[in-house]
């Protein structure tokens, strides 16, 4: 067993950290919060130069064949920097989906993502189906798509969307131009841009259906596993940033003539944050390896365990960071509260704590490894 | 031991319930039902309505405009108020400065300020905290120099809730820079329209503007606005902090929050996670019950005329922790629906859409009113003898 990152992965992480330090800070974040499009062309170009657009994909489409852990190390840095660039939502998620589908049409579309000709979002959820990605309420009847999707993280800049729908008994995946949908855009809890889509009898032509049947369910589960692992990576980055900032603050903020870090209760809070953070890091390594396994059961167990743990402990770290900052911690002026919102956000995407504990319990029942 | 209300109390409850049904405006009820906060005019209209009835200054002695109710009646009133979807009363006038004025103020001060509080006409804010004096209030620096017929105030306050709404501020100032920390502090009433006062908004992480910074530059405050004697500010501040408040634990509003949660869970027809959501709610209900019965004991003790001591710190700790847990549960049960931050239309369920704002705001409740860590220090010292 070894817990060391490969040289390659370490390099990816270091580069990401340096890139963000040079090109993204709290000021940029605040500007981006107020913009409706989150795909800054200059930064997107830089990400392309860094190789991020192709990183997780095969060389045959111009990618680098990177592993989930490589992407996770980037996303960790994005979380640490509060960066809202929709890299995961518009590159990793649709890209992996298309790669796993693997048809000529799908690979063509993947290629255009890698080459930065196309921004594609994924629409897995709608507010009438909870976290169940396999039973969408939208459907295709007589060649027309109707229904709706909610919580589509499109960064305010996608032009196409990958949509799940039912066709008779089958689950299908389609690619739909965004302009053919009725769109309501809004800001999500973490500051990112979401869209709700309504489909009014969109005529479905042959090329639009990318995948059908059990295969669709399988590839979506695979991609959702990636996204669950990446949620953890983003939360880890944020939790670590919160810990470092809070530790620093506790050493400098004086009350009653001493640094608040000299009060034992604050020391214990910080020690709790530190020890939780260690365990969160272990869980991140674990899930970054297991979320791309072929064995669905082991994969899902790992993802659910990690997300349930993060929803508990990383959120707790964010709460403590605010508490230790006192009044200043609950203001928009300081980054602490923004990290807190990011943390709450990520604890709810792709399954919240109860969902994952329930799933874990049922998976454990099946394989008896409880 | 009798844990039930008497017949008289039940009749009282019935009459209050009927009154609430008649008098709580529908718009206000809707604001509460969604977990939002009322606007200034909604809040003020409601407090004036209570004031007209003589029900605003609930805890006050009758001679100053209180309704003369027992603590149990006040408790019943509070539950009925919350369950009718009416917001709690702003604490600054009624719960804070009012009792200070009728306890320490001169006859002129009582006559001048108390009627505006009991009628809900005058809005107050609390100027205690400063950038370097939060938990350690006694290190405050805002200076009030005594001149011929006024104090000259210079300095800065921070975290002043509703300073932008307020007509008046009650303020702790340093009148004697030579005296030891606690001793040189005095309690002043300051008209917010006085020249030299500047208010700067602070936005909090629920996205709203409740908080402010307040700057004083050569602000002239008449000498008659000093409450008690010069240097008595710390005694008054401490009196105010432990002043009897049967609503400190927020039991009534937590009951209302629980009812809203129940409603929201039932309103979502497809919801697959209902069993775990209901279990979560049951857990909170148990905690609320423990808090309620602890609160009952203080209510009963108050009815027997016993003073309300450092136990109020215990209620503050448990009550605020529960408020945070409930708001967090609401967000988490909402799941994806809680991700909508400023959607122009409802995404799934509006209560769940609004849940994160309240959750964000309530991170502050373990910080304000004396942080929970400070409350624990107080308990350790005063009750446990540590
Ligand atoms: C929403 C909100 C509304 C408010 N409204 C008002 C208002 O209307 N008027 C007003 O005057 N003030 C108001 N306050 C200010 C509030 O009272 C202070 O924020 C609070 O007293 C804490 O002070 P601080 O923010 O400076 O934190 P600090 O005092 O810097 O504390 C930081 C952290 O250190 C801990 N700590 C400090 N000292 C000790 C110790 N000795 N032992 C253990 N732990 C310690 C604290 O518990 C906290 O966790 C409000 C605050 C908020 C957040």
UniProtKB/TrEMBL annotation, chain A:
Entry's family note: Belongs to the acyl-CoA dehydrogenase family.
Keywords: FAD, Flavoprotein, Oxidoreductase
Acyl-CoA dehydrogenase/oxidase N-terminal domain segment(s): 7-83
Source organism of the structure: Ketobacter alkanivorans
Gene Ontology terms for molecular function: acyl-CoA dehydrogenase activity; flavin adenine dinucleotide binding
InterPro entries: AcylCo_DH-like_C, AcylCo_DH/oxidase_C, AcylCoA_DH/ox_N, AcylCoA_DH/ox_N_sf, AcylCoA_DH/oxidase_NM_dom_sf
Swiss-Prot/TrEMBL cofactor(s): FAD
Protein name (database record): Acyl-CoA dehydrogenase
Start and end residues of each Acyl-CoA dehydrogenase/oxidase C-terminal domain: 232-361
Gene3D superfamilies the UniProt entry points to: Acyl-CoA dehydrogenase/oxidase, N-terminal domain, Butyryl-CoA Dehydrogenase, subunit A, domain 3
Coiled-coil ranges per UniProt: none
Automatic annotation (TrEMBL), chain B:
Family per similarity comment: Belongs to the acyl-CoA dehydrogenase family.
A Pfam family: Acyl-CoA_dh_N
InterPro entries the UniProt entry points to: Acyl-CoA_Oxase/DH_mid-dom, Acyl-CoA_Oxase/DH_mid-dom_sf, AcylCo_DH-like_C, AcylCo_DH/oxidase_C, AcylCoA_DH/ox_N, AcylCoA_DH/ox_N_sf, AcylCoA_DH/oxidase_NM_dom_sf, Mycobact_Acyl-CoA_DH
Keywords recorded for this protein, A-Z: FAD, Flavoprotein, Oxidoreductase
Molecular function GO labels: flavin adenine dinucleotide binding; oxidoreductase activity, acting on the CH-CH group of donors
Domain annotation Acyl-CoA dehydrogenase/oxidase C-terminal: ranges: 231-383
Acyl-CoA dehydrogenase/oxidase N-terminal domain boundaries: 6-121
Domain of life assignment: Bacteria
Protein name according to UniProt: Pimeloyl-CoA dehydrogenase large subunit
Cofactor (UniProt): FAD
Lineage: Bacteria, Pseudomonadati, Pseudomonadota, Gammaproteobacteria, Pseudomonadales
Residue ranges of domain Acyl-CoA oxidase/dehydrogenase middle in the record: 125-219
UniProt key word Repressor: no
Keyword Disulfide bond belongs to the record: no
UniProt GO cellular component terms: plasma membrane
């Amino acid at each position: 067993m070894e817990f060391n990152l490969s040289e390659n992965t370490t390099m990816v992480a270091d580069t990401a950290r340096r890139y963000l330090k040079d090109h993204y800070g709290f000021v940029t974040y605040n500007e981006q919060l107020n913009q409706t499009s989150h795909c800054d062309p200059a930064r997107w170009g830089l990400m392309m130069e860094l190789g991020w657009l192709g990183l997780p994909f095969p060389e045959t489409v111009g990618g680098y064949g990177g592993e989930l852990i490589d992407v996770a190390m980037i996303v960790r840095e994005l979380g640490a920097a509060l960066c809202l660039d929709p890299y995961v939502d518009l590159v990793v998620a649709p890209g992996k989906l298309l790669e796993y589908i693997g048809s000529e049409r799908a690979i063509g579309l993947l290629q255009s993502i890698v080459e930065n000709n196309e921004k594609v979002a994924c629409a897995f959820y709608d507010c009438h189906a909870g976290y169940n990605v396999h039973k969408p309420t939208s459907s295709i009847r007589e060649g027309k798509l109707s229904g709706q999707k909610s919580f589509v993280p499109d960064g305010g800049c996608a032009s196409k969307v990958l949509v799940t729908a039912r066709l008779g008994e089958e689950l299908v995946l389609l690619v739909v131009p965004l302009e053919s949908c009725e769109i309501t855009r809004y800001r999500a809890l973490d500051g990112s841009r979401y869209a709700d889509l309504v489909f009014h009898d969109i005529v479905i032509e042959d090329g639009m259906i990318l995948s059908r049947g059990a295969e669709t369910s399988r590839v979506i589960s695979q991609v959702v596993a990636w996204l669950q692992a990446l949620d953890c990576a983003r939360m880890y980055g944020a939790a670590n940033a919160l810990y470092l900032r809070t530790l620093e603050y506790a050493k400098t903020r004086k009350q009653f003539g001493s640094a608040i870090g000299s009060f034992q209760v604050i020391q214990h809070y910080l020690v709790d944050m530190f020890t939780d953070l260690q365990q969160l890091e272990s869980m991140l390594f674990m899930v970054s390896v297991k979320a791309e396994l072929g064995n669905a059961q082991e994969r899902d167990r790992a993802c659910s365990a990690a997300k349930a743990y993060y929803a508990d402990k990383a959120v707790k770290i964010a709460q403590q960071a605010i508490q230790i900052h006192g009044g200043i911690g609950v203001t928009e002026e300081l980054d602490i509260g923004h990290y807190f919102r990011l943390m709450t956000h990520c604890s709810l995407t792709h399954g919240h704590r109860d969902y994952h504990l329930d799933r874990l319990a049922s998976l454990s029942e099946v394989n008896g490894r409880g | 031991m009798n844990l039930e209300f008497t017949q008289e109390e039940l009749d009282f409850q019935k009459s209050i319930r009927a009154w609430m049904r008649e008098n709580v405006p529908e718009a206000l009820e809707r604001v509460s039902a969604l977990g939002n906060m009322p606007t200034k005019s909604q809040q003020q209209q409601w407090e004036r309505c209570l004031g007209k009835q003589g029900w605003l200054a609930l805890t006050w002695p009758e001679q100053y405009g209180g309704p003369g109710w027992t603590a149990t009646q006040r408790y019943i009133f509070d539950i009925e108020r919350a369950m009718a979807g009416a917001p709690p009363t702003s604490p600054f006038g009624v719960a804070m400065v009012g009792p200070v004025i009728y306890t320490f103020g001169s006859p002129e001060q009582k006559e001048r300020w108390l009627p505006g509080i009991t009628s809900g006409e005058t809005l107050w804010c609390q100027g205690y905290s400063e950038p370097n004096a939060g938990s350690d209030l006694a290190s405050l620096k805002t200076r009030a120099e005594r001149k011929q017929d006024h104090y000259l105030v210079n300095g800065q306050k921070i975290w002043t809730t509703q300073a932008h709404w307020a007509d008046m501020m009650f303020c702790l100032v340093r009148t004697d820079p030579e005296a030891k920390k606690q001793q040189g502090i005095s309690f002043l009433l300051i008209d917010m329209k006085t020249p030299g006062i500047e208010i700067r908004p602070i936005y909090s992480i629920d996205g709203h503007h409740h908080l402010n910074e307040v700057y004083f530059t050569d602000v002239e405050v008449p000498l008659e606005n000093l409450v008690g004697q010069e240097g008595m500010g710390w005694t008054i501040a401490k009196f105010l902090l432990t002043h009897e408040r049967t609503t400190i634990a927020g039991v009534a509003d937590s009951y209302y929050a629980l009812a809203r949660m129940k409603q929201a869970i039932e309103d979502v027809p497809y919801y697959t996670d209902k069993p775990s959501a209901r279990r979560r709610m049951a857990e909170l209900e148990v905690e609320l019950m423990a808090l309620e019965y602890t609160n009952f004991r203080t209510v009963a003790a108050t009815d027997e005329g016993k003073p309300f001591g450092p136990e109020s710190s215990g209620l503050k700790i448990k009550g605020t922790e529960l408020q945070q847990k409930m708001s967090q549960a609401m967000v988490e049960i909402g799941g994806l629906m809680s991700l909508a931050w400023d959607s122009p239309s409802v995404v799934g369920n509006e209560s769940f859409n609004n849940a994160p704002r309240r959750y964000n705001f309530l991170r502050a409740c373990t910080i304000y009113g004396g942080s929970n860590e400070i409350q624990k220090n107080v308990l350790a010292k005063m009750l446990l003898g540590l």
